[in-house]
């Protein structure tokens, strides 16, 4: 009898330890189920689901993109792929992860909810807005910051705020990101943070990302709108400061018909982008990952869009290096201004 009691006691200790890790910062510890804590949000995150698969039957590589490791361009309505390479390779999704984490936020809370920025949310490396702990900002503004400007502090604040309002733990929020990915058929992806900073346990493929993009296009007009917004800044109020919201999509306003959607960069991912475009009622999506510069990324994406639209008889746009460099010059001036103001604010606060 004493042996059975000892075994039971050890099991209780093991379960208690697992629960402690689960609740109080297990990091990348796989979650069992939110039902274990009792505030199940599965119904909410399961409502907006559109399944989508790419059709590679006519796909081929584009000879001019030999140096680009991963890319795909496809018809967003039919899924027909025109050109692709490395679409099944595991890679860092970087800030493409924000397309998933913001879906969860929208599933859980109305975007007119006010979110209080926590110290945890601002402990991020660039790109950031420069949010300050204690500020109160509408979720809708944090969404635009996360998508258009790809600000890591904005994405983390949105995720943490949505979790708090929904009375779930941050670790549960990550659980729901992975549940949502599985519902979308993203079986070769896994996520451990809402902003996309590199982690060996955070990975995806271009094929999975196409499923994520399709769900955004079909079910989340708020994210689509955020992806096309540019310099629609967050104006100062009594509860928060003013923040610039530039859109770092290099083809927005340069390639005719581009409507979004999301850029990404980390050391592991390289310069990457997802670009949506429509010309003559044809809707295309181009995804490029792993390039070595903004210029290589955007030239490759423009070439992919040209090649896809040309299969339908539309003329090539032929975006030039000069056109892009003019765009980057505007970016550079604004980025320096933003960094200077963030530094000034930080220095003033530290005194």
Automatic annotation (TrEMBL):
The record lists the lineage as: Bacteria, Candidatus Collieribacteriota
Its keywords, alphabetically, are: Cell shape, Cell wall biogenesis/degradation, Hydrolase, Peptidoglycan synthesis, Signal
Is tRNA-binding tagged as a keyword? no
Q: Which Gene3D superfamilies match?
A: DD-peptidase/beta-lactamase superfamily
Question: Could you tell me one molecular function GO term of this UniProt entry?
Answer: serine-type D-Ala-D-Ala carboxypeptidase activity
**Boundaries of every Peptidase S11 D-alanyl-D-alanine carboxypeptidase A N-terminal domain copy:** 70-290
Q: What is this protein called?
A: Peptidase S11 D-alanyl-D-alanine carboxypeptidase A N-terminal domain-containing protein
Instruction: Enumerate the Gene Ontology biological process terms.
Output: cell wall organization; peptidoglycan biosynthetic process; proteolysis; regulation of cell shape
Q: Which organism is it from?
A: Candidatus Collierbacteria bacterium CG_4_9_14_3_um_filter_43_16
């Amino acid at each position: 009898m004493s042996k059975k009691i000892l075994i039971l006691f050890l099991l209780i200790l093991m379960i208690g330890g697992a629960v402690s890790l689960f609740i109080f910062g297990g990091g990348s510890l796989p979650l069992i189920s939110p039902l274990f804590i009792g505030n199940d949000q599965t119904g909410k995150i399961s409502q907006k689901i559109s399944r989508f698969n790419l059709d590679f039957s006519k796909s081929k590589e584009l000879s001019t993109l030999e140096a680009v490791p991963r890319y795909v361009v496809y018809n967003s309505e039919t899924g027909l792929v025109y050109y692709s390479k490395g679409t099944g390779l595991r890679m860092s999704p970087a800030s493409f992860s924000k397309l998933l984490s913001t879906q969860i936020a929208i599933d859980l809370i109305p975007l007119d909810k006010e979110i209080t920025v926590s110290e945890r949310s601002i402990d991020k490396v660039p790109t950031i807005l420069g949010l300050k702990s204690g500020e109160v900002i509408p979720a809708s503004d944090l969404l635009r910051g996360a998508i258009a400007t790809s600000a890591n502090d904005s994405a983390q604040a949105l995720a943490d705020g949505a979790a708090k309002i929904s009375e779930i733990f941050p670790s549960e929020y990550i659980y729901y990101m992975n549940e949502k990915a599985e519902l979308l058929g993203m079986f070769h992806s896994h996520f451990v943070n809402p902003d996309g900073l590199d982690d060996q346990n955070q990975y995806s493929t271009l094929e999975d990302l196409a499923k994520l993009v399709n769900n955004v296009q079909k079910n989340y007009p708020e994210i689509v709108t955020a992806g096309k917004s540019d310099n629609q800044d967050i104006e100062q109020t009594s509860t928060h400061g003013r923040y610039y919201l530039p859109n770092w999509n290099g083809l927005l306003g340069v390639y005719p018909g581009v409507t979004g959607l999301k850029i990404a960069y980390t050391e592991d991912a390289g310069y990457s982008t997802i670009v949506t475009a429509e010309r003559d009622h044809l809707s295309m999506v181009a995804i490029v990952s792993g390039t070595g510069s903004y210029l290589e990324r955007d030239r490759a994406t423009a070439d992919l869009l040209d090649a896809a639209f040309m299969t339908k008889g539309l003329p090539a746009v032929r975006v030039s290096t000069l056109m892009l460099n003019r765009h980057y010059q505007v970016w550079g001036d604004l980025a320096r201004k933003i960094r200077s103001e963030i530094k000034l604010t930080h220095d003033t606060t530290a005194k």
